[in-house]
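so i finally got all the pieces together for this one. its two components total, 1266 residues if u count the protein bits. some of the lines might not be protein, just check the labels. i wanna see the whole assembly predicted at once instead of chain by chain like last time, that was a mess tbh
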Amino acid sequence: MSDRLAVNRPLAHDSAAKHVAGEAVYIDDMPEPSRCLEVYVAWADRAHARLLKLDLDAVRRASGVVAVVTTDDIPGHTDISPVGRHDEPVFAAETVQFWGQALFAVAACDVHTARRAAGLAVIAYEDLEPRLDVDAARAAEDYVWPPAHFVRGDTEAGLARATRRLDGRVTMGGQDHFYLEGHVALAIPGEDGDMTVFSSTQHPSEVQHMVAHVLGIPSNSVTVEVRRMGGGFGGKETQSNLFACVAALVARKTSRPAKCRLDRDDDMIMTGKRHDFTVDYKLGFDDDGRIEAVDMHFASRCGYSADLSGPINDRALFHADNCYFYPDVSLLCHPCRTNMASATAFRGFGGPQGMVAAERVIEEIAIACGLDPLEVRKRNFYGDGERAITPYHMTIEDNVIERVVAEVEKDSDYWTKRDAVRRFNAENRWQKKGLALTPVKFGISFTMTAYNQAGALVHIYKDGSVHLNHGGTEMGQGLFVKVAQVVAEELQLPLERIKITATTTAKVPNTSATAASSGSDLNGMAAQAAARTLRDRLTAFAAEQHQAEPSEVYWLPGRIAVKGNEIAFADLVHDAYMARIPLSATGFYKTPEIHWDRAAGRGKPFYYFAYGAACSEVTIDTLTGEYRVDRVDIVHDVGRSLNPAIDAGQIEGGFIQGMGWLTTEELVWDEQGRLRTHAPSTYKIPTCADRPEIFNLRLLENENPKATIHRSKAVGEPPLMLAISVWQALSDAVAATADHQHPARLDPPATPEKVLMAIGRLAEIEATKEAAE
Amino acid sequence: MRRRLRFLLGHEAIELETVDPTLTVLEWLRRHAHRRGTKEGCAEGDCGACSVVVAEPDANHDGRRLRYRAVNACIQFIATLDGCQLLTVEDLKGPDGSLHPVQRAMVDHHGSQCGFCTPGFVMTLAALHHEEPGPKSRGRIDDALAGNLCRCTGYGPIIRAAQAITTTTGATAHLTDREPEVLARLLAWRDGATFAVGEAGRTFMSPGSLDDLLRLAAEHPQATILAGSTDVGLWVTKQQRVLDPVIWLGRVPELAAIEETDDALRIGAGVTYAQAFAHIARLWPQAGELNRRLGSEQIRHAGTIGGNIANGSPIGDSPPWLIAAGATLHLARADERRSMPLEDFFIAYGRQDRGLGEIVEAVTVPKPGPDTALHCYKITKRFDQDISAVCAGIQLRREGQRISEARIAYGGMAATPKRAARAEKALTGAPFEEASFRRAMAALAEDYQPISDMRASAAYRLKVAQNLLLKAYVESSDATSLCLAGRREPVRV
């Protein structure tokens, strides 16, 4: 246990008692202001079409309809591309670009009335061929973002020189965020054309900017606030913009408050998801499984617009090495434009997809060389000197992966278990077991260097109570309690004295999205800076009062000591107020050291790396493809944890979410480009029984060598990728059906269908071989 | 006929006369009662964020105690609460603000992150805690929580919380002390009378007897017949259909009966999955396991086997095993009764042999003989709470080393639940050995031409359907090589 007052302690989530009592207020729970309208956003049921006619007369005439909003009602810009590409109209104009694209909005006293009225629209389309695959996009060279290319060494020569060569392809599915709270925004018009918007968003500053942009007013006229989200996972980084803008447009047009809340189906149909990827790889390696050269060609389905696809696709490349040194390497990525909802941020931000490719490479090499995959992994880990340099020419300085993996190897009793699995598979015809231990190395920082900044605002009131505000948003990850712990530590106060307040653009401006796992790194440091400013002022004041040096003022829990006097915090604050000491301060932080030159594919995009490893054991039913995860062992590096309970929650939750992505969560689009899995009845996230019966989790005893907030490490995204061990264990079990003679080529999501079909493929290879013999 | 419905919201009496016949409990709570602790996550009964507890006099104890069950407020219509107590997350804290033991455990074990699913979990656990106060196995917890999705925690902390709720420390007295009073009020309201409520010319009718039901069904042949609303509820929330009138079977005592005779089990059309479970699991263990995985506890508390048959879905989980077991369906009209083999009820996709004004009254299932085994399989992407890609009922009777009778029916393989005539023929009279099952597997390709959809490809459907025949053989012949479908331990619903 920590000797610290507030940090390093496993404190409960600040809202836990409110969550369990139904008292935590989400935006749809707020009492509606009087005359509040409800908004339905009508969308196109075509993936690609020219919009020939949009006749809304019947909609406008429908009973109960108060307003209809179209592109013509937008006083400002009609485009809300978050990256300035002008490729994201609020409402589809001449061309519909995906099934689910917004066409117009209807406002009524209740959303049911609005929705029924929307159905009266007379719409005529001229259908165009939808583009739904990366090959067609590559043929047309139609990319939403310029392709990135990371090169080190001479890959062609490396491949030519290699003892052994192997080519292959892995495809991996996308993922719906399935935050339990769907998108929602409540816009309230004010005087002078001002607009206040409550938005379920990870990025209030961007919502503010977008609302101002579409209303044609300056940002100082718009205030965006969010106390909490019912889950985000990246799905509310940019995707909230549209619904906040629509609510604001209705509010502007009608001068009435307007709420826009999506039901589950519309939410899943209209908003972006994790990118799916296809990766073609060429490998060169030696007989001992040592990698000599790697060429990977990534392509993702980005949907109709750029959104964040540029940096997401870059991050796939940044993690295509995972923990492995590639002597000669070429990594290329094509972000392909397709007629689908624009794929967007999702926990890991492309990193998981890069890492899946890396682990497929290891799997292929292990099968080819007849080695245990863990042995191959260890032989290829990053090392020192030359072997510490990534494909983007950054030197890794904080590598602890060998230690992490060794600990999991021990915790899981890997080699004993490997023997047991082998015996089990020899003795069982219909069931096979699989085992895999996979590592994770995840780069921490926004690769867009400018985003690595944060602000905070701390007030101390005369009674000694403290008001904390910062630019981070709370989506369940526990950011607010962690930052409050930092401030409590700084001021030596019990946590209850720190009032956690809603994120609002009116208090801290120009914030970055709460994303990239950066929340506590950035906002914790900013809040610490603000609290430290106040502490320094109070220290100086106390020193002056007692004719002491500031170094003679000691901060103790709830009080200070100076020259033999102890003064309670509240008294100190009161005296400071009377002496006209300012009791409000801002804090600011920017991450040091980082830089990135995308054109050159060189730099230091990450301040540091977070590490982890997991061992998973699975059993498959070879007749049905059904499976069960029997046991998981995890060791994860969060540096010196700010809050071990919150961090463990992120690791467990991230693991299961990653497992869902790689197993049962399958997004299905039909040939018309219509998403067929848009509700929990058809889209299957893990449920309680999917949590492995045995689930051992340890935090690595470590502290961040970098001067992060109390030497902690970011934790939001990295654990998701620990679940790659489940997919690899399933591959191992499938390969066991043919005695590990062939790679399983089990592409995620590894649904029972994929497992059975992969088994069938191996059986065919074996049958062909037998026939030949 | 009564013209109002009556229920308790917590301990407050609610009487409604003018009410939309398909207003959901969730909409009523959030919009009319301004209780917004209960959340909408999916509006289709699949995520459990809207879970509430319905308490009513327990028929198994002559109505002398209250039975608590968790249900999905999002697809249940408000009028179905007549004579019940509705408890929401707002009811759990004690008058002094202290937390209920379930709430306490969830806080202590870090069971919430974003908190949006949390009220639903809390209510499901509160019902579980009330009905089964002792310690719970992991399997029991998985079952109880299968209908509550959490996207943040990975469930570990919630499982730990559920395991920690073994005592009644914390605020419970404000609920338990008033149970006799609640029971008395509910019993007084349970008049058995037919009632009707409505709004703007649309009507919800709740017959109190089979005679009234058949009379109303005859008078309103176009009425929507409502049982558990686990399907009809979605017509409203997902398809925005306007239903009028609605006739609800939930208060017809004759349909609620489950009768066991020497040679058969007769299940009334109003019997829920949960009510039928114990009987089914005892007589047909694998059908019990199938039933346990059907929907979630919330769904099994509301949904009925009669409704699963009557809606004619090709992917309902009850028909395949019932057909394989040789079930007979009973239909009733005002002055007419008829029965048929269950498989004959399903004519084509969306078409069943049910006339206007006719209702499904019951299904009778012959008990298995000593030489008969019923194998049931449910193939899904996710093990729990998923709609079947393929569902199989395979009943085999053996005489010595031969198969004397094979009755095989699949769901998800055709436009209706359908028997596998060619596979049955291949097995009937054949020796009980792998080769016979391999021949039946080949024959199955002649029986079905399944489709590809979001749940499975045609190729997988056929392949896995074939393999399930082999699996039935393997399970019968090689106990050491049992496949995965079995759970960690037997668990009850």
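The first helix of chain B runs from residue 25 to 32.
Chain B touches chain A through 88 residues (CB under 8 Å).
anyway lmk what u think
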